Automatic annotation (TrEMBL):
Gene Ontology molecular function, alphabetical: calmodulin binding; glutamate decarboxylase activity
Protein name in the entry: glutamate decarboxylase
Pfam families: Pyridoxal_deC
EC number(s) from the headed UniProt entry: 4.1.1.15
Length: 293
């Protein structure tokens, strides 16, 4: 029975991603532990079904490189908030897509999905035919052979119970809470907002003035208020920018969206009363070191 529910989930998610599925045809995909396993499966399938690695250049020149989309977070956001955005199987070159059930799929940890465009995009070699209790051979192709079915059941339940409208409401709520948080941060006058309003509901921001205290200190003190807000440097070429990043979960309520701003203001107040981090700057930055002789 678990495989029935898994197939139903695969079908629903494949439709959500606009897979070209004919009448009476079943979608091709499988439940995994998360996006990480899903990405590996898609990668194996790529490598087995076309030996393209020998001549990557040729394929790139021909512009028909098959594409795998890692939609870990966005896969359960874009179809509801940006249905007109063509990122999925509507693009001919997209052959497989993964999505995490435990991010915006609204299921507890331990579930992800990989969906293939069609049967021809899933390598036969990947499919392990098993015979379970004498039933017809069932194709299976996860990397983890033994896995409880509770997550699949939870995903099935959420999809059936909430439906398209339910997921859409949940995502709109996340987006609204991101807006409340963003506006609260702007109102403090202390932060520059880096994130865009469209996309995954998150707010990335940095201090306007980090001469005395930086984002890492804000992050550290925020922990005491129960908020784990990571601070990190941007990738090469933008390393001088450090951002704090808040990802809005679907169980984050409107009142909760207002609280972090209050707590961040307390943190700023506290930092203000502390001496500037002279030592960390000296140790952490290359400039000002005594090594140049
Ligand atoms: C979270 C994430 C992953 C890993 O997903 P899991 O479901 O936790 O394995 C992979 N890629 C991207 C872009 C992610 O955001």
């Amino acid at each position: 029975m678990a495989s029935f529910r898994q197939n139903r989930c695969v079908n629903m998610i494949a439709h959500l991603f606009n897979a070209p599925i004919g009448d009476g045809e079943a979608a091709v995909g499988v439940g995994t532990v998360g996006s990480s396993e899903a990405i590996m499966l898609a990668g194996f399938s790529f490598r087995m079904s076309c030996n393209y690695s020998n001549d990557i250049k040729l394929i790139i020149y021909r512009w028909d490189t098959p594409i795998h989309v890692d939609a870990a977070s966005g896969g359960f956001i874009a179809p509801f908030l940006y249905p007109g955005l063509e990122w999925d199987f509507r693009l001919q070159l997209v052959k497989s897509i993964n999505v995490s059930g435990h991010k915006y799929g609204l299921v507890y940890a331990g579930i992800g999905w990989v969906i293939w465009r069609g049967k021809e995009d899933l390598s036969e070699e990947l499919i392990l035919h098993i015979s379970y209790l004498g039933a017809n051979q069932q194709p299976t192709f996860t990397l983890n052979s033994s896995k409880g079915s509770s997550q699949v059941i939870a995903q099935y339940y959420q999809l059936i119970r909430l439906g398209y409208e339910g997921y859409k409401n949940a995502m709109e709520n996340c987006q609204e809470n991101a807006r409340v948080l963003k506006e609260g941060l702007e109102k403090t006058g202390k932060f520059t907002i880096i994130s865009k309003d469209i996309g995954v509901p998150l707010v990335a921001f940095s201090l306007k003035d980090s001469s005395r205290h930086n984002e890492f200190e804000v992050s550290e003190i925020l922990r005491r208020f129960g908020w784990i807000v990571p601070a990190y440097k941007m990738p090469p070429d933008a390393q001088h920018i450090t951002v704090l990043r808040v990802v809005i979960r679907e169980d984050f309520s409107r009142t909760l969206a207002e609280r972090p701003v209050i707590d961040i203001e307390k943190v700023l107040h506290e930092l203000n009363s502390l001496p500037a981090r002279v030592m960390t700057k000296f140790v952490g930055d290359d400039e000002g070191s005594c090594e140049e002789s």
